[in-house]
Amino acid sequence: MLYLPLQEVRDCLLRVLLSRGCPQNHAETVAFEMARNSLEGVYTHGVNRFSRLIRNIDEGIVRMGVEPVPVHTFGAIASMDGQMGLGVVNAKIAMAHALSLAKTHGMGMVALRNTNHWMRAATYGYQACEVGMAAICFTNTIPNMPAWGALDARLGNNPLVLAIPSPSGDVVLDMAASQFSYGALEKARMEGRQMSVDAGYDANGDLTRDPDAVLQTQRILPMGYWKGAGLSILLDLFAGCFSLGNTTLGISRLSGEEHGLSQVFIALDYRKIAPEAQSDAILRETLAYVQGSTVAPRASEVRWPGSRLAETRERNLQNGIPVDERVWASILALQK
Amino acid sequence: MLYLPLQEVRDCLLRVLLSRGCPQNHAETVAFEMARNSLEGVYTHGVNRFSRLIRNIDEGIVRMGVEPVPVHTFGAIASMDGQMGLGVVNAKIAMAHALSLAKTHGMGMVALRNTNHWMRAATYGYQACEVGMAAICFTNTIPNMPAWGALDARLGNNPLVLAIPSPSGDVVLDMAASQFSYGALEKARMEGRQMSVDAGYDANGDLTRDPDAVLQTQRILPMGYWKGAGLSILLDLFAGCFSLGNTTLGISRLSGEEHGLSQVFIALDYRKIAPEAQSDAILRETLAYVQGSTVAPRASEVRWPGSRLAETRERNLQNGIPVDERVWASILALQK
């Protein structure tokens, strides 16, 4: 394992993107966010996914130099077409537009179609928190999870983000509709570990914690069984119907790659109706109450969304970002 | 088991409410919705919960003759104070206000504080669908679920609703943040059944499907383990911070009953940016795709939110609403 300084990682990703004809401002956004994801421990959507992004650029699936264009607008809501551009750039621009609508109307929504993988869902929640707003965001994806009672995958594990700013560290929930991501299953298989709870079905149709068995059947378990399946359907219908873009069905008709996605960004300028001093006091005492829970006998700690982020970030800033040698070598090889 | 015609159930609930000094229009709303809940198979939040509501009215916890009053408004967002009135009436009025804001601005949000149990969460999703809008609604509740890794219950199993209208039957997800409700556990214990999947922890700290063991420890399992716990925290922070009302912490300081709640109603008039013909076509083909999934070998059917509703409703309209004799006797005894 290599331990690389944040700046070195960022600079390298930036150079590779620029070598593909990516405009400077877009390249900076993507390099910044993907390096930050690894810095904050979300390795699957950071450096580890960078080579795949470049492959998608080289294949023409992700287009360079385009930005979302407005389609329809009515008051606080708008739809935009992402023109199959860089997912991170598109999503940041769509969220910025939702934030700007919220500044005027108290809340705003942008439904974005024809976009690509936004990497880490939480990114757009933090973007809202930075300007003191709350957010609800979600994306759809390729069919990778069965409906409840189904054998074949016709749902996406569509991630949902809920975010609210907090002076002691923003509270950002970033939750896929499956119990585990395919990335987490692959990591556990490589390390020869079982998952901590049931992750999906084996070839006999039994629930199992064995990542290899689930990767073979591709029957990953929805979070909360039927509940995650239901959540996935609603998020997909919202994203597709609001943006008039692809639902998971439409995405499945494309290349088989994760592109042509639809996403929704809702920004809530709630401090316009809930003065900061009062709402922050409620937030602070509520978080302190939860964090003061008695730790269960067999648990090591009480967890809440973001509870481990500051520690990981600090450690990786100090010691460098852990990057697999082969992953780094393949990224270095992309600089040409 | 009795099988009672819808009209008889409604009329009886109405009479009892009127006998408590409930205004005619409020009594009609509550009687209509609670009878409908039983009609559509949501027995726990229909007739079965009616005596408890009347007890709360008699105790003065639920106040008669009040309606939500506006607190703060900015553009498309507003907060209201429910004055500890009837939860169903308050929630319907708050949702109606969110729908009216959405008509003007494309979307609207009402954050409601000092309200009471809204019974069935889906009610307010259907309310939006009736006027062609989508909705996101949630409520908080008393502490009844531990945080992830915690022994003591400091979270609520706060239900979340996502709803979108559909000509073939609105698609409404109504999902508590726990894997099962306490009502479902109590029903299974009465019937001597185990739950279909793990429902919580037993006295040894082991996950169990035994409803009795979970009811004894009161350690119910969050949906998706850490995920449902995280979702609960965010919904509670949103509801409390937006309305400047109680979070689960504040509710815990009250009587121990489920009152003084905070709720959020978001209405989305998405057809203003996504013409009905186009968005409905996307919805129809996406639902048909999911419903066309191959049924897994050991499953009896593929399920999605609302997939069983029409059948239950039809059966109960035909045969009458099933009501336990003792439950009905206790409601009849309330007519005085």
Question: How does this model look, in words?
Answer:
The structure is a homodimer of 336-residue chains. Chain A has 336 residues and is α+β, with helices and mostly antiparallel strands. The first copy, chain A, has helices at 6-19, 24-39, 50-58, 87-105, 122-130, 182-191, 211-217, 226-243, 248-252, 276-291, 309-319, 325-332, and strands at residues 2-4, 69-74, 77-81, 107-116, 134-139, 145-146, 153-155, 160-164, 171-175, 200-201, 207-208, 259-268, 321-323. In chain A, the strands form four sheets. Chain A has a seven-stranded mixed β-sheet, with helices on both faces. The model of chain A has no long low-confidence stretch (mean pLDDT 96). Chain A has two domains: 2-178 and 222-271, Ribosomal Protein S8, Chain: A, domain 1, CATH 3.30.1370; 179-221, Wheat Germ Agglutinin (Isolectin 2), domain 1 (2-Layer Sandwich). In chain A, helix 6 packs across helix 7. Chain A is globular, with a radius of gyration of 20 Å. Chains A and B meet through strand 2, strand 3, strand 4, strand 8 and strand 9 of A and strand 2, strand 3, strand 4, strand 8 and strand 9 of B.
Summarize this structure as a short list of keywords or feature phrases.
13 strands; Ribosomal Protein S8, Chain: A, domain 1; homodimer; 7-stranded mixed beta sheet; 2 domains; Wheat Germ Agglutinin (Isolectin 2), domain 1; 336 residues; two-stranded antiparallel ribbon; alpha+beta
Question: Mind sketching the topology for me?
Answer:
Two copies of one chain form a homodimer.
Chain A (H helix, E strand, L loop, with lengths): L1 E3 L1 H14 L4 H16 L10 H9 L10 E6 L2 E5 L5 H19 L1 E10 L5 H9 L3 E6 L5 E2 L6 E3 L4 E5 L6 E5 L6 H10 L8 E2 L5 E2 L2 H7 L8 H18 L4 H5 L6 E10 L7 H16 L17 H11 L1 E3 L1 H8 L4
Helix pairs in contact in A: 1-2, 4-5, 6-7
